[in-house]
Write a structure and sequence with these properties.
Layout (H helix, E strand, L loop, with lengths): L15 H16 L7 H8 L3 H12 L3 H18 L8 H7 L5 H12 L3 H28 L1
Helix pairs in contact: 1-2, 1-3
Amino acid sequence: MAPTSRSVQRRPGTSALQEQAVERAEAYLRAHTISRVPLSRLCQIVGLSERGLRNAFYGVRGMSPKRSILAARLRDVRSALSHSDTTETTVARIATEYGFYELGRFAATYKEAFGEAPSETLRGTRRRAAPHQNVQYERHAHACTS
């Protein structure tokens, strides 16, 4: 199986089967980002007991399946906030699209993970886009007055 961008070097004592199980679990989760997938369902998908899946995640990712899933969802939200190209985008909308419904808890977890509030990530995106928009406006204004 080809490594993904989230792959890490195999830890000592980690088997290829554990690595494959984690990859299958993560692929399933990526395909179902909007819905919350219970751990028991994930175990059925990869064909391992909860203990087996937990051991596989610890061996491959160094963390529990739940923590790994949360980290991946937070990265997805950060990416969505960072690549937002519209002023109508809100943190609440993106957070709920990725299954975060307790927005206060989400904001605290996000800030702990990335060192900034989700609104700061979104504002930074808008600030980076603003100079580009101003340049286009200035070119248009210059063309109209020339």
